[in-house]
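Box 3.1 A note on notation
Throughout this textbook, protein chains are presented in two layers. The first layer is the amino acid sequence; the second is a token string describing backbone geometry. Keep the layers aligned when reading.
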Amino acid sequence: MSQSSVAAEPGEFIIRDARPSDSEAINQLCVEAYVEFRTAIGEPNWQRLRETLSRASDLSNEGELIVAEDSSGVLGVVLYLPHGRTSERNLSGRTAMMRTLAVSPLHRGKGIGRGLTRECIDRARKDGADAIALTTAEMMAVARPMYERMGFIKELELGERFGVKHARYVLRLE
């Protein structure tokens, strides 16, 4: 099991592989993290997205589910998919993927999202990937600039999902 400690203000949090006992906290956190987009995507789309998010812990069947936690519990979550395990079309070469980054609204601004993203980048490098990709929505006003500051570049417009425009961003690791 992978685990690392990350400095955060005012304390520290650790990043580790999710455990089955984290399932309820992960599912609840994902719904809480995305509820702010309810109005932007509309009620029918929110109901569909909420249903998907309420089963986010099931993503551990697809790849490596990673959490950030401190003494208060799970603060954030992300799914890492090594190259060869992604279902995305049109990915070039040995491209890994990260999906469903979520940080508790109560713990934002502490470097948790950046720490989880960095963990995925580190795992992709370790796995021999030549790039790591992610998809994000235009409504993700905090996440998109963070990804860009970390070196991700918009590669492809993906059309609408849940009623909002999405795009794929890629970070070359070579």
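Confidence is low (pLDDT under 50) at residues 5-10. The chain has one domain: 3-172.
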